[in-house]
Amino acid sequence: MKKVISANQAVSYAVLAAKAQVIAAYPITPQSSIVEMLSGFCATGALQAKFINVESEHSAMAACISASVMGARTFTATSSQGLALMHELLHYASGLRLPIVMANVNRALASPFNLKADLSDSLSQRDTGWLQFYCESGQEVFDTIIQSYRISEKLLLPVMVNLEGFILSHTYEIVDLPEQSQIDLFLPPAPARECLDVDNPCMFGSTTDYYINFRYKMHQDMEEAKTFCSEIDAEFKKVFGRDYGLVSTYLCEDADLILVTAGTIAGTCRVVADRCRAKGMKVGVLRVRMFRPFPGKQICEPLRKAKKVAVIDRDFSPGCGGIFAQEVKASLQGINCGLPVYEFIAGLGGKDVTDKDIELIIEQTHKMPNRGESTWIGLLK
Amino acid sequence: MDRPAQIKFPIPEEELVYSGHTACPGCGAALAMKYVLKGLGPRTIIVIPPSCMGTIAAGFPFSSLKIPVLRIPFESTAISASGIRAALDVMGKEDIHVLAWAGDGGTFDIGLQALSGSAERNDNIIYVCYDNEGYMNTGIQRSSSTPAGAWTTTTPAPFVKDTPKKDIVRIMAAHNIPYIATASIGYPADLIRKVKKAKEIGGTRFILIFSPCPTGWRYSPEMTIRLAKLGTETGIFPLYEIENGEKYTLSSKRSEKPLRDYFALQGRFRNLTKENLQQFEERVEKEREYLKRLAG
Amino acid sequence: MKKRYSLKSLDTLPITAISFITTEGNETGEWRSQRPILDQEKCNRCGLCWMYCPDNAIHAEGGAFQISYTYCKGCGICAKECPRGAILIEKEER
Question: Which residues contact A107 (CB under 8 A, 6 or more apart)?
Answer without folding.
Answer: A28, A29, A30, A79, A80, A114, A115, A116, A117, A118, A121, A165
